[in-house]
């Protein structure tokens, strides 16, 4: 029956998605790609099995999700290519993704698309920077080949359009802002550069970001502004409560895969969280940061697979992460349970202390998670 088909399809979809996630977490890219291919083929077959008008297709929530999923996969694939130095392939993938249209365009899809365009703009900036270095090396007066200069201007226009769009959206866009300002400064548009940096530093819609004030300060210094102006630019940065800001920054840093195994970063977070838990002051700081991450950090950072891997490769990393996991997810967290058990079994003193600490302050987890 139709109901039974839909039920089976839903179950198959969920199982396949879990396999994809598991494979990606274990960096089994080939296996993940095979499951993803099967998944997309299944979706296409399911859509073609039912006769629906274009208007009905556009209203299908699954088709909207499918479109969003495609964009997210494209971004992940582009990051993978970039990490392996395959810049041209990454650029082609991002360009191709811009032409995708599947179902009704939603607000979320629109944001994902802007992100894809922004990363393409970043690669255009990279090409522009290479051409700029060639010109500077040879000297514009003595360089007769105008093709380099023309390509440079073409890259500038494409990069500027996409970078400008993404930094309008409230968020932390340090790299994009720096590249856009570099473009503007090179072509002498200092007023626009100043406006962009002021907006990034002082607009209340954007999250607190110490880097924004540093970038503004550095720009003003390059412009030869007075000492009074320079000090004024850093006032907000200096006056901010260092602990709160530090907590925000370290949480944001650990959102990125490149920092997943950075012991210093985890040590910094563990130390700050431990101080807050013991004092029982500012637990709302932790709760605020955790609320936006509790749906995806457990799989991203605290799976049993990662606990085993971290314990085998870096005991110090597993210790710091276990402390954070115990505070955020409680004493029953898979990561904490595995690491603390191994540490105690190996008769390492600090792991026994860690286990006692998390058990003692387990009620804090309940206050953070409610």
Automatic annotation (TrEMBL):
<dbReference type="Pfam" id="PF14929">
    <property type="entry name" value="TAF1_subA"/>
</dbReference>
<dbReference type="InterPro" id="IPR052669">
    <property type="entry name" value="SL1/TIF-IB_Component"/>
</dbReference>
<dbReference type="InterPro" id="IPR039495">
    <property type="entry name" value="TAF1A"/>
</dbReference>
<dbReference type="GO" id="GO:0000120">
    <property type="term" value="C:RNA polymerase I transcription regulator complex"/>
</dbReference>
<protein>
    <submittedName>
        <fullName>TAF1A polymerase</fullName>
    </submittedName>
</protein>
<dbReference type="GO" id="GO:0006360">
    <property type="term" value="P:transcription by RNA polymerase I"/>
</dbReference>
């Amino acid at each position: 029956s139709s109901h039974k088909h839909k039920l089976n399809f839903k179950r198959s979809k969920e199982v396949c998605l879990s396999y994809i996630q598991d494979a990606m977490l274990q960096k089994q890219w080939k296996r993940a790609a095979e499951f993803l291919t099967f998944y997309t083929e299944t979706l296409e077959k399911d859509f073609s099995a039912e006769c629906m008008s274009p208007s009905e297709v556009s209203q299908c929530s699954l088709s909207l999700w499918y479109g969003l999923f495609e964009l997210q996969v494209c971004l992940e694939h582009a990051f993978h290519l970039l990490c392996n130095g395959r810049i041209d392939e990454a650029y082609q993938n991002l360009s191709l993704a811009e032409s995708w249209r599947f179902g009704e365009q939603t607000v979320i899809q629109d944001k994902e698309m802007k992100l894809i365009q922004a990363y393409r703009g970043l690669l255009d900036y990279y090409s522009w920077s290479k051409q700029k270095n060639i010109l500077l090396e040879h000297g514009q007066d003595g360089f007769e080949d105008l093709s380099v200069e023309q390509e440079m201007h073409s890259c500038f226009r494409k990069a500027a359009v996409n970078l400008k769009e993404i930094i309008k959206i409230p968020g932390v866009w340090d790299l994009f802002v720096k590249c856009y300002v570099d473009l503007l400064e090179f072509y002498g548009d200092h007023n626009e550069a100043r406006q962009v940096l002021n907006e990034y530093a002082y607009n209340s819609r954007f999250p607190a970001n110490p880097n924004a004030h540093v970038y503004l300060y550095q720009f003003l210094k390059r412009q030869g502004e007075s000492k009074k102006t320079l000090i004024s630019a850093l006032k907000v940065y200096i006056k901010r409560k260092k602990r709160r800001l530090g907590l925000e920054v370290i949480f944001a840093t650990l959102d990125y895969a490149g920092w997943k195994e950075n012991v210093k970063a985890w040590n910094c977070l563990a130390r700050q969280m431990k101080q807050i838990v013991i004092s029982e002051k500012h637990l709302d700081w932790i709760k605020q940061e955790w609320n936006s991450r509790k749906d995806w950090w457990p799989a991203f950072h605290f799976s049993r697979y990662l606990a085993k891997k971290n314990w085998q490769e870096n005991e110090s990393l597993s210790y710091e992460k276990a402390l954070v996991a115990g505070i955020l997810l409680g004493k029953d967290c898979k990561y904490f349970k595995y690491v603390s058990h191994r540490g105690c079994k190996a008769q390492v003193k600090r792991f026994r202390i860690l286990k006692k600490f998390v058990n003692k302050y387990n009620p804090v987890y309940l206050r953070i998670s409610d």
